[in-house]
UniProtKB/TrEMBL annotation:
The chain holds residues 7 to 333 of 599 of the full protein. The gene is mutL. It comes from Sinimarinibacterium thermocellulolyticum. Transmembrane segments: none annotated. The keyword Methyltransferase does not apply. This is DNA mismatch repair protein MutL. Residues 205-323 form the DNA mismatch repair protein S5 domain. Keywords: DNA damage, DNA repair, Endonuclease, Hydrolase, Nuclease. The keyword Nuclease applies.
């Protein structure tokens, strides 16, 4: 019921950024090629995510707001696979329980769209006809309107917007094949076309991480020890508050781990005698059997079967890269 969902929302939906993350991930799951995110007042007034994905059948729409009613688990095999990706069928019921929400969706080939809304709970289980191109829009207004205690934990609109933008940026850096747009209070903040080819990927990194980062960063693409490491590493000359310029993806998922920072600092110290805090956008690919992914709603953690090997791989690859560019 609504209370259970609100308690779950406390876990899953901490702030507008979490709404953005959950909705955009759903759009990706639906095979979207372009995803548009509109925010008002840092996402406190409105989070709207519109995609051109597969859409959802009208008969399935109300079901999507029931707990654990994910459409993404069809067999036990799937269950194991999606368990590691965090598909738990909790996001939509949680978000609905603390907002005014509307879902409008049209399957490709359908004559028109269907729409369903609610405030804390659904108004009705039966969707009604609506106008919308193929794909899905979900509009979330007045987040935490019915849980004032939670709303008090939110920061300023500017801060909430920054969190929401970071959430989208982290995803955009992992899916170069998908286009993303972000507007805040009607103002265009990001417009990222699908990026195939190295120059387009570089351009996307530039718009997210800054021209100053990409201008001096060294590109890496190294395979060794059965793993591949690619991406961009900032040099010591890149002086900026870099707290949020550390992106580390393991098999496509953003991971917060001290391991890459540690390996990079050692490589920089060794080759360049520099003790700076490295900036990087790095993608590590390895045999999934070598990593345990544990997806907490707010953060992704991995446990490498052999962290020492991963460290040695990163250290070795970056060490070689730096020796090549050392002045
Ligand atoms: P989960 O993603 O874990 O399945 P959610 O609560 O995030 O759970 O979503 C519930 C269901 O709603 C999904 O399984 C999917 O069937 C449907 N759904 C949500 N968003 C979309 C979307 N953008 N396009 C198509 N279907 C969607
Ligand atoms: Mg989901």
């Amino acid at each position: 019921d609504q209370l259970v969902n609100q308690i779950a929302a406390g876990e899953v939906i901490e702030r507008p950024a979490a709404v953005v993350k959950e909705l955009v991930e759903n759009s990706l799951d639906a095979g979207a090629r372009r995803i548009e995110v509109d925010l008002e007042r840092g996402g406190l007034g409105l989070v709207r995510v519109r995609d051109d994905g597969a859409g959802i059948e009208p008969a399935q729409m109300a079901l999507a707001f029931e707990r654990h009613a994910t459409s993404k688990i069809k067999s036990l095999d799937d269950l194991e696979r999606v368990a590691s990706l965090g598909f738990r069928g909790e996001a939509l019921p949680s978000i609905l329980s603390v907002s005014r929400l509307r879902m409008t969706s049209r399957r490709s080939g359908a004559g028109h769209a269907w729409t369903l809304g609610g405030e804390g709970v659904l108004f009705a289980r039966q969707p009604v006809p609506a106008a919308h191109p193929p794909g899905t829009s979900i509009e979330v207004r007045d987040l935490f309107f019915n849980t004032p205690a939670r709303r008090k934990f939110l920061k300023s609109e500017a801060t909430e917007f920054r969190h929401a933008q970071n959430a989208l940026d982290r995803i955009a850096l992992s899916r170069f094949d998908v286009g993303f747009a972000l507007r805040h209070n009607q103002r265009r903040v990001r417009d990222l076309a699908p990026a195939d080819g190295a120059p387009a990927r570089r351009a996307r990194v530039a718009s997210i991480c800054g021209e100053d980062f990409i201008a001096q960063a060294v590109e890496i693409d190294e395979s060794r020890m059965g793993m591949r490491l690619h991406g961009w590493v900032g040099l010591p000359s890149f002086a900026r508050s870099q707290a949020d310029l550390q992106f580390f993806y393991v098999n496509g998922r953003l991971v917060r781990d001290r391991l890459p920072g540690f390996a990079l600092r050692r490589a920089f110290a060794d080759v360049m005698h520099s003790a700076h805090h490295p900036a990087y956008v790095l993608y590590l690919e390895l045999d999934p059997a070598g990593v345990d992914v544990n997806v907490h709603p707010q953060k992704t953690e991995v446990r490498f079967r052999d962290g020492g090997r991963v460290h040695d791989m990163l250290f070795g690859a970056v060490h070689q890269l730096l020796r090549g560019v050392r002045p």
